Automatic annotation (TrEMBL):
Residues in OmpA-like domain copies: 574-689
Coiled coil spans: none
Main location as per UniProt: membrane
Protein name: DUF5723 family protein
């Protein structure tokens, strides 16, 4: 019955889920050749091939988040899908189908660091998202009596097939020591083949089975947009229209860390036949672009209505059914289908010799609910592999959206043939597989030849790259020894002034004397201001600004006079102040003991002497004529010494002070009066010049 055919096809679409990456597990191989350009266009630069010719290859995959089956039992006769499949229904089950066929294609090097690839490719995608899985299960049962009203939800479905003609260019962008970067771009012409798209809004279906096709009734509600690449209601044959075309772009970068690059292995980056990296990081964005169907049609439909089972059986195709059972309202504008844009990232680790471990992630960059938009299922994978020129073996382990299962596969490459699956191992042991895939191909590889290891001078640089093939020299100087043009003992590579002799301490340049003061800049603490050698090339300062340079100024922080070596001069007025204090100093009678009430006078003397810290003073003791002359002489000496000791105790330097006593010999007043004798008993302060 046509009903069963239609519903079975719809159920099959719900069973299919695309892998995020074609040729999973194979493309990271350094010998994947032209197939690797589909994942990252930068990968073909600095490859192990002179050329790689693809005769035929394909990658296809199925999976789902709704039904799980014993994959191998499903192919046996008598398998009952409804009864034996494990079901995982939700209000938003998802589905998508992907098939990728690569036709005659080839890549080749156009220069040592530049590579081109040209490929042909046919692709098909089907996405069904956010559909009620329980409804799909119920409407496909053979013996349902009365089907209740079922909410289908707001499903979004798109099927798109197209052909690609791609031109890829990749080049080495940066190469320095152990760091290596390459980039690539693919421009592709897109030829649209066929397109269907359907977007529902709150769709529900009620099926009443009365046992009579004339009475069995479908009742529907909701709305939908339905379109296609051509009007299949008038012509059910697919017609490829040359005007249904578009353009796309892929972009990629690959960085390689090559720690084996050393002075002894300077040639490693130039060896084309070997893998040089320890770690490889790749990132790419694929399928930027869209195609436009010149004869595309798109209508909106109000799905409120009903029709009998007999009516439904009378239609040859879904387009006739939609147009005749519901009123189409044309939506103007071109039918445009965007490519399934995605970002890919991978890390490849060379564990040891020919053993590698690859980790990659693929993520869709477009909304899966957008009208007429294909998208990939997000996926992460880990793939250990053994890799050599003529043989590779790999075991991809992956986890993908929708299927929600870890998948394990296996694959191999034998030079001219490769085959693999990212799910075959898990499918062999699981009773509820939700995914299956396979990739295979035939090709003609033309590998790089092993470089001739000719190195006459034994400096580790092959003669083809050595500018001095018979004289050993470092890689940095292209195999030639470094020279010393100015014969200063410093090689030109390290000599900042290779044509003028200079010391090693100044990187081979002569020392300068910018301020022309006779002190070389290396010894000159003030290289831009002239100054004497005695002051390390700096001009002498005058800190106190008194016109006497600090080097000659005995009081560099206090203004003074030139005559007094930069120190303030002790004037007559200053001496008078000192003596006003000193003459008022009182002693115990006939003793050299200073009485406490004299302390203020003594502190005044200390303060003045501190102001003139470069001056020297003499303390002279005197007495009146009363008493024994000899005792008076000694008393005057003792009293002058007592004042001196006091001043020293207050911080006045001892070498600035001296004392002497003169007894009764130098009176300044008459000893015949009390007042005169009081004046004669004194200590005088004299400036020592």
């Amino acid at each position: 019955m046509k009903k069963r055919i239609f519903l079975s096809l719809f159920a099959f679409a719900s069973f299919c889920t695309a892998n995020a990456q074609s040729y999973l597990g194979y493309t990271p191989d350094n010998y994947a050749g032209v197939q690797s350009v589909l994942y990252n266009p930068a990968s073909i630069a600095d490859s192990r091939f002179k050329a790689d010719i693809n005769l035929f290859s394909m990658s296809s995959s199925v999976g789902n988040d709704m039904y799980g089956v014993n994959f191998f039992d499903a192919f046996k006769s008598g398998y009952d899908f409804d009864l034996e499949a494990k079901k995982n229904f939700s209000n938003a089950n998802n589905a998508v189908f992907n098939s990728d066929i690569m036709g005659p294609s080839f890549m080749f090097n156009i220069a040592p660091k530049h590579t081109l690839a040209i490929y042909t490719r046919a692709r098909a995608f089907v996405n069904v998202v956010d559909i009620n899985g329980q409804v799909i299960n119920d409407i496909t049962k053979e013996n349902s009596s009365t089907f209740p009203t079922a909410t289908l939800g707001s499903p979004n479905a798109v099927g798109n097939s197209w052909g690609e003609l791609g031109l890829s260019y990749a080049a080495v962008l940066f190469q320095r020591g152990e760091h290596f970067l390459k980039g690539g771009i693919t421009a592709k012409y897109l030829q649209g083949v066929a397109n269907y798209h359907f977007q529902g809004n709150n769709v529900s279906v009620k099926y009443d089975d009365f046992g009579n096709p004339l009475l069995d009734t479908y009742t529907t509600t909701g709305s939908a947009i339905y379109g296609s690449s051509q009007d299949f209601a008038t012509n059910s044959d697919i017609e490829i229209d040359s005007k249904s075309r578009g353009f796309g772009v892929d972009l990629g970068l690959v960085y390689e860390w090559r720690p084996e690059y050393t002075a002894d292995r300077a040639d490693i980056n130039d060896l084309k036949e070997v893998n040089k990296y320890k770690l490889r990081f790749g990132v790419s964005v694929t399928d930027l672009g869209h195609m436009k169907y010149d004869k595309g049609v798109r209508n909106s439909y109000n799905l409120a209505g009903s029709f009998t089972h007999d009516d439904f059986e009378g239609y040859d195709n879904f387009d006739d059914f939609m147009k005749n059972e519901f009123t189409p309202i044309p939506i103007n504008g071109a039918v445009r289908s965007n490519l399934p844009t995605a970002i890919h990232a991978d890390v490849d680790w060379n564990i040891h010799r020919k053993f590698y471990l690859n980790a990659n992630a693929d993520f869709g960059l477009v909304s899966k609910t957008k009208l007429n938009q294909n998208t990939i299922a997000n996926r992460v994978s880990l793939t250990p592999r053994f890799e050599s020129k003529w043989f590779s073996f790999y075991v991809p382990i992956s986890y993908m959206d929708y299927s929600e299962q870890t998948q394990v596969g296996v694959g191999l490459r034998t030079g001219v043939f490769f085959i693999g699956s990212s799910s075959i191992v898990s499918n062999a042991i699981s009773k509820s597989s939700r995914a299956a895939d396979i990739h295979l191909g035939m090709k003609i590889p033309i590998y790089q030849k092993k470089a001739e290891d000719k190195d006459q001078d034994g400096d580790g640089i092959l003669d083809k790259d050595d500018d001095c093939p018979t004289v050993a020299g470092p890689l940095e100087n292209r195999g030639c020894p470094w020279g010393d043009r100015d014969n200063d003992g410093i090689l030109d590579k390290d000599d900042k002034c290779p044509d003028v002799a200079g010391p090693a301490a100044n990187n081979g340049c002569p020392w300068e004397d910018k301020d022309n003061d006779g002190v070389l800049d290396k010894d000159d603490k003030c290289p831009t201001v002239a100054g004497p050698k005695e002051n390390a090339g700096c001009p002498w300062p005058d800190t106190d600004g008194d016109g006497v340079l600090d080097k000659d100024d005995k009081c560099p922080k206090v203004k003074g006079t030139l005559a007094n070596n930069g120190c303030p001069e002790v004037t007559t007025e200053v001496i008078k102040r000192l003596n006003d204090f000193s003459k008022s100093i009182l002693f115990d009678s006939s003793k050299a003991t200073i009485r406490p009430e004299s302390n203020d006078k003594l502190e005044g003397i200390v303060k003045v002497m501190d102001e003139y810290n470069n001056a020297k003073f003499k303390l002279e003791g005197h007495t009146d004529s009363t008493g024994n002359v000899a005792k008076n002489l000694q008393l005057s000496k003792d009293r002058a010494a007592a004042v001196k000791d006091y001043l020293i105790s207050k911080g006045i330097s001892a070498d600035r002070l001296s004392s002497e006593g003169y007894g009764i010999t130098k009176p300044i007043a008459s000893n015949k009066t009390v007042e005169g004798r009081a004046q004669n008993r004194r200590v005088e302060i004299i400036l020592v010049k």
